[in-house]
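Researcher: Please predict.
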Amino acid sequence: MDHFVTLERLPEELEFPADLKDRIRIDAQSKRLYFRGYMSKTDFDRICLLTKDWSFRRKLEELFRVCIDDDEPASKGGHGFFSLFRKRAVPS
């Protein structure tokens, strides 16, 4: 699944690592930053170190949160089929 955030402005001279180019991209026309799938903390850190542009880093952090909220592996988040029953069976 592709996730995105809208950028306020496009970062200057930003080159993504070759091994992430198939997962991260910027659409200059819509001013959106896209990431495909789950973004690990390691991915986030590597991308963050590419620029000192704090506006971009804040948007990258926003995208990171979207990616982990939507695609967190089931083993960590317990979002599988049986989690529906756990929520109903266990009182708050």
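Model: The CA atoms of residues 22 and 74 lie 23 Å apart.
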